Each structure stands twice: as C-alpha cells, then as structure tokens.
Amino acid sequence: MPEIVSLGECMIELFSEQPMEEAESFQRSLAGDSLNILVAAARLGTTTGYITRLGDDPFAGYLLNAWRGEGIDVSQVKVVAGFNAVHFIAQLPGGDREFVYYRKGSAPSTLDPSDLDEAYLASARIVHASGIAQAISDSARRTVLAAVEMASAHGIAVSYDPNYRHQLWGPEDARRAMDELLPHVTYFLPSAPADTEPLFGTSDARRVVDNALSRGVKVVAVKRGEHGATVGTAHEVFEVPAYVPGPVVDTTGAGDAFNGGFLHGLLKGMSPRDAASLGSIAAGLKLRGRGALTSMPSGAEVYAAFDSLT
To answer: Do strands 97-102 and 27-31 pair parallel, antiparallel, or not at all (unpaired)?
Structure first.
C-alpha cells in the first residue's frame, strides 16, 4: 500500500511564453499541489497514492496515464460526469507570469467524504492535506477534514501545507480551515510570507514555528524561498539554506518539491535536519526548468547532490 496518500485537485496546465493577449498557442501539461508532492516523493522512491475525482472529459485519459506513469496508485480516483479544471499561464516581460483559472464546479471540486476508504487511509504512513483542496469547495473541505480525522484516529501521521491562495478565499476562512486541521497535524509545511502573513499575521518564521509547536504539531518546516527553510521540533529550531545550483527558470512547484523530499526523508528515517536538506535540494533542482512536473528532479539527481554535501 502507498506510504504517502494525498487528496485534492489536479488541473490541466496550458502554458505560453507570450502574454495571454498575444499568445497564439499553448503547451499542455498538468499541475496541482496535491499531485506535485506525490511526484516529488515518488521520484525519490516513496510509494504514493492519490484521492481525487476525475471528470470524464477528453482530458481524463491523459491525466490518468500521467499519474500512472509516475507510479502513483490511482485505485481511489473516482471518474465522474463533469470537466477537469484548467489553468492558463503566460510569461510576461521581465519574467513575471499571469494566470487564468477555470476550475469552479470542476470534478475534483465535488470531492465528498463518501469518496474516502478508511482502510486505505489507515494503511498509509502519511496522509497529506492541502489548503487548496480545502478552498475549492465546501464538500472538498469536509472531505479533507474527514480524511485527516480518519488518519489521526488510526495513528497515521498527517502533513499539511496551507498553500493560501487569495483567488480562492479570504484570510479568515483560510485560518478557520487551518485551525480545524492543526490539532491532527504532525508535519506542518507553510511558506513565508505567502502563507504566514495572511494566516499568522507575520513573516517571522520562528514565530510561526513556536505557534504551531504550541498547538501540538511535531515538526514544522517553514519554506522561505531563496532564504531556505526554518525547521522546528520540540528539541530544536534551525535553519536550512536554500540549494541553488544555477539560474532560476521557474519557481512553480518548488515548495511541493521541498515537501515531497522532506516527507520522503522522514519516512526513510532521516533526522528533520537531513530531511529538510533533501527537500531543499529537490526544490533547488526543480528551479532549473519550467513547469511544476516537467522539471521535477529524479531521485538520482537529488541523492547525488545530497551525498556531495554531506
């Protein structure tokens, strides 16, 4: 059975290197934080499983084959009538990007607690939850909470990335959703300042670490982009530097790469410090190419860099 099980939404990604109003063609890919973390961990050797709903539109076969191609168990993916979410990304002059989302009412947003197999969740070692999955609909939020409660009841570790998106909801709703999960969370994986400012009112990673630890979280890893990560346990709080092997091409999915590497390391018995270093390397290598998945590094690349630094 899978070691890490994640639930949420995967979208079709259509990318252009020109501004949206000028673009004549888009390149197809796929992305979604709940999926990206599975790919990052799977490429390092962790077994993974995905819980989502898949719309029966013409993209369904593409998505399902892509997930299987990454070795992800799809036995809990439910195919339903409906469409799969799409987001467009276009490059702007100066390196910025613009996004357009078409996701409201998509098949993944209809996730329901009845989609959960408690025995499947109880067989995992980590169940991963995402704030985006909570935000896409009320039923998806209930499903995330139910999955986390099931995992916790069976003594299964829960990881959680709040991944705040202002396009989906406001800070107050996001904080309430976070607060309902935190009592069950083992590994808390926010980003600063993108998550910490709206959810904790601060960009100070150590304050966030202290807050989460005081609420029962066992390990906190605050991702800080080019500044690395701040990691805290009941015994210590420490900094892990960013790994930047070359020019940064695209930051999309870098946080998910860190999460996947970090959780993989913990599952393999690494200390939080070494696991965070592995996650930092995975994130840094991911920065070399465009797209959330196309530039996700292989396990061999990550471990080669890790071995060279230790």
So the answer is: unpaired
Rounded CA-CA distance 39/163 in Å is: 17
* CATH number for 149: 3.40.1190.20
The residue segments making up the domain with residue 39 are 4-8+33-84+111-309
d(CA 248, CA 262): 21
Q: What is the pLDDT of residues 162-190, one digit of tens each?
A: 999 999 999 999 999 999 999 999 999 99
Q: What is the dihedral of CA 271, 275, 281, 287, to 10 degrees?
A: -150
Domain count, the chain: 1
Whether 92 is in a domain gets the answer no
Q: Assess if residue 252 is contained within a domain.
A: yes
73 within 8 A of 49, measured Cβ to Cβ: yes
Quote the tokens at residue 248. 């940064």
Characterize 261-288 residue by residue with b for buried, 16 or more Cβ atoms within 10 angstroms of its Cβ, and e for exposed: bbbbbbbeebebebbbbbbbbbbbbbbb
Q: Using omega within 30 degrees of 0 as the cis cutoff, is the peptide bond preceding 193 cis? A: yes
How many other C-beta atoms can be found within 10 angstroms of the C-beta atom of residue 245? Answer: 12
> Which residues are catalytic, by number?
256
Token pair, residue 254, equals 């870098």
Q: Does residue 236 belong to any structural domain of this protein?
A: yes
Report the C-alpha gap between 115 and 306 in whole angstroms. 38
Residue found by looking up tokens 């593409």 in the block? 62
- Tokens 């070691």, residue? 3
Summarize the chain as % helix, strand, coil (round to 5).
40, 20, 35
Q: Which residues pair with 91 in a beta bridge?
A: 97
**250-279, pLDDT tens digit by residue?**
788 899 999 999 999 999 999 999 999 999
Averaged over 235-252, what is the pLDDT? 90
Residue 240 and residue 271 in contact, taking contact as beta carbons nearer than 8 Å? no
